[in-house]
Here is the input.
Amino acid sequence: MEGSNLILKNWLQQEKVFNDNLILSRKRPTKISIHDLRVAVKKMRSYLRLKQQLTGEEWKESFSKISALFKSFGRLRDYDISLTLIRKLERKELLSFIFFKEYLSVNRSLTRKWAKQDAIKFDEHKPDVFTEQFKLITGSNSDISEKIIQLSALKIKKAKNLAKHFQKNAHEIRKQLKDLYYWLKICPKDLVESFINMKVLDRVLNYLGSYQELSC
Here is the structure.
């Protein structure tokens, strides 16, 4: 990756995480492989939104197969989380939800089989088309970083406008700030620190995540 532009470098890192966990999931999707693959997809998607801002290139249609796999793994993750939460509730409240847990377990087992098949059928070379596009991004890493800062300022402005109707827009605000976080993480640390406090941004994202879970 030596000599790569910084967006390409980070894209390739996430593509590797995606493919490594795809291989693991073809044997058996686990909580860890599901989580890591989905996080990689979220970052890849964010980098593609950044690329679109820089080049004007559309990407969603070409990304549809990866999005479908993401959703398949998301259904399995939902069952895993539901079972974890119901067991915590049982211990805390001294209750028993035997039949509900059985329902969740049966559906989780079926969903794991489907997710595994989706992983097996998935063409691991799908992300390669985007890799070639990222290679075409021009400009020095310094210029690209400055452009990311400019785009990040617009993200913050958009999030502030959305916050005027917070309850209605909470999900979209979190989405905008997630992009902001992923974009800034690929820039030089000293440049980012002069622009925003990343620890505060991280805490805000955690609060928004908790708010979303409680609102569901």
